[in-house]
Amino acid sequence: MASDFSRPHLLGIKGMDAAAINQILDLAEHYVEADYSDHAFAEKCRGRALANLFFEPSTRTLASFELAGKRLGMDVITLPVAASSVHKGETLSDTAATLDAMGVDLLVLRHPETGAAQAVARQVSCSVINAGDGTNEHPTQALLDALTMRRHKGRLEGLVVAICGDLKHSRVGRSNFHLLRTMGATVRAVAPKAFVPDDAAELGLEVFDNLERGLEGADVVMMLRLQKERMAVAELPSPVAYFAAFGLDAERLKKARPDAIVMHPGPLNRGIEIASDVADDPARSVILDQVRLGVPLRMAVLDLLSRG
Ligand code: NCD
After folding, report:
1. Residue 165 exposed, middle or buried by CB count within 10 Å (0-12, 13-18, 19+)
2. pLDDT (tens digit per residue) in 127-180
3. Antiparallel, parallel or unpaired: β 206-208 and 106-111
4. Cα(266) to centroid(ligand 1), Å
5. CA–CA separation, 16 vs 2, rounded Å?
6. 206-208: strand order across its sheet
7. Across 36-45, 136-145, 234-243, which has the greatest mean pLDDT?
8. How far is the centre of ligand 1, averaged over its atoms, from the C-alpha of 75 (Å)?
9. What is the whole-number distance in angstroms between the Cα of residue 225 and the centre of ligand 1?
10. What average pLDDT does range 8-14 have in this prediction?
11. Which secondary structure element, helix H or strand E, spans residue 302, and what is its range?
12. Among 163, 175, 278, 284, which residue is least crowded by beta carbons within 10 Å?
C-alpha cells in the first residue's frame, strides 16, 4: 500500500495533512471490527520491539499501546520509570539511547517537557511516538478522538466541536485543534479567560468564555480535565466554583444539538469538569468508546510506523 504516512516518527498532528490523517483512520477501521480471539494479527509485526517509556502517570494510553503492540505480535516492554536508572540520575537522552542500543524499533514516550519526543527523535535510530509532551501534543489521542467522531457522526468536515475546559495546559486540546482544523471542522475553544491558549486566534479557534453559549448548536462536546500538575497553586480554581461556571451537566448539555455526543479523554474528575449524569449517560457519552477505539487506532499507528 502506497503510504502518505511516510514519516519515521509520530511527534504531533501539527504539519500532518488530511491524507495522512485519513490513512491512519482508515487503517484503524480495519482493526476495529477484527476478531482478536484467535490472534489474527500475531504475525503482522512479529520480531519488532516496542518500548513504553512514561515519565508521567497513564492508564489508557499506556495500556492501549501495550495491548496494540501485543496484538500485532510485537515484543513489548514497559520501562518502570520510577524503579529505573532515571532514579539514579540518568538523563532522558541516555535512557532513550540505552533502549535504542538494545534494538527497540518503536519508542513510545510520555514526558512533562514540551519538545521531549522531538529531542529524542533527533537522537535515536528507532521510531518515536509522542504519547504526550508537556502542554504541547498528544497525537494518538487526537487521532482516536477523530476516529470516534467519524464513527458516530459519519464525517469530520463541517462538524461543530466545542472543546471545553483547561485548554491552556492541555496537549489533548492542542492536538485536537490541529487535527480538526485540518479536517475542516469548526472548532470552539470554550474556557474561562485564564485557560484560553495564547495562540487561539492563530489556531483559528472561535473563543467562548461562557459554557452555555459555547455549547449552542455543537455536534460534539469535548470536556477536558483541569491539568493541576501543570499549574501554579494560585492558578487553580476551587472545584466547586469551577463546576458552577464550567462543569457539564445534563441541563447545560441541552444547549448543544439534541444528537450531540459527549467526549472526554480521561481521566475524569467527576463533579469538577463533568457530572456523572452526563458522563454515564449511554445515549450521549462516548467516553468508553474513545477508550475502546484507542487500541485499534494505536495498532494502525504501530503498523504504519513499522513499515519504514
Ligand atoms: C490525557 C493526557 O495525559 O494528556 N490523558 C490521556 O492520555 N487520555 C488527558 C489528561 O491527563 O487530562
Report:
1. buried
2. 999 999 999 999 999 999 999 999 999 999 999 999 999 999 999 999 999 999
3. unpaired
4. 6
5. 17
6. 206-208, 186-190, 160-164, 220-223, 261-263
7. 136-145
8. 25
9. 8
10. 96
11. helix 287-306
12. 284
At residue 107, what is the residue type? Answer: L
**Ligand 1 contacts CB of residue 172 (under 6 A):** yes
What is the amino acid identity at position 104?
A: V
Q: Ligand 1 in contact with 171 (CB < 6 A)?
A: yes
DSSP label of 115: T
Secondary structure (3-state) at 32 = helix
- Omega of the bond leading into 267 within 30 degrees of 0 (cis): yes
Q: Is the beta carbon of 60 within 6 A of some atom in ligand 1?
A: yes
What distance in Å separates the CA atoms of residue 241 and residue 236, rounded to the nearest whole number?
11
Q: What is the pLDDT of residues 79-90, one digit of tens each?
A: 988 888 888 899
- Residues 6 or more apart in contact with residue 100 via CB below 8 angstroms: 107, 124, 125, 126
Closest CA to 255 of 209, 205, 218, 210: 218
The minimum-distance atom of ligand 1 relative to the CA of 60 is 8
CA 200 to chain CA centroid, nearest Å: 19
**Rounded CA separation 279/137 (Å):** 24
CA–centroid distance, 61 to ligand 1, in Å, is 8
Is residue 222 in contact with ligand 1, taking CB distance under 6 Å? no
Q: Is the CB of 298 under 6 A from ligand 1?
A: no
Instruction: Determine if ligand 1 sits within 6 Å of the CB of residue 152.
Output: no
Separation of CA 285 from chain center: 17
Residues 224-260: b if buried by 16+ CB within 10 A, e if exposed: bbbbeeebeeeeebeeeebbeebbbeeebbebbeeeb
